[in-house]
Amino acid sequence: MAELTPTLAQSRCFHHAHREAVARCPECHRTFCRECITEHDDRVVCASCLQKLVAKPPAKRVALHRPLIALGAVAGFFLVWMLFYELGRLLLLIPAELHEGAVWKQLNP
């Protein structure tokens, strides 16, 4: 079955019918020549879609950023605390004879 949509090389500019299209706007899906297309936020868009994008207020960020950082800091503090606590308990399990050098005296007669 033949493809119904023309390729970009066969397409013409939406505003200038005598010019070959070089890009397709991702917002309105129309094809445009080099003069009618512009780059915005690392993508190419037409002038009318660019005006719509710029006119929109940016989406508000959720105000959970600072509380999440504080919660992460508190969780990290307790994690490190528990790590050192368990390391201390592990060191207490080592027999006292090892610290006094009695084990080394037994190994070297």
Nutshell version of this structure?
This protein is α+β, with helices and mostly antiparallel strands.
Describe this structure as you would to a colleague:
This protein is an alpha+beta fold and 109 residues long. It has two domains: 7-59, no CATH class; 65-107. Helices cover 44% and strands 11% of the residues. The chain has helices at 47-55, 65-92, 96-100, 102-107; strands at 23-24, 31-32, 37-40, 43-46. It has a two-stranded antiparallel sheet with strand order 1-2.
How much helix is in the residues? Answer: 40-55%
- Give, in spatial order, the strands making up the sheet with the most strands: 1-2
Structural class: alpha+beta
Unreliable residue runs: none
Count of domains: 2
The average pLDDT is 82
Largest sheet: 2 strands, antiparallel
What labels would you give this structure?
single chain; 109 residues; alpha+beta; two-stranded antiparallel sheet; 4 helices; 4 strands
SSE topology sketch:
Blueprint: E1 23-24, E2 31-32, E3 37-40, E4 43-46, H1 47-55, H2 65-92, H3 96-100, H4 102-107
Antiparallel strand pairs: 1-2, 3-4
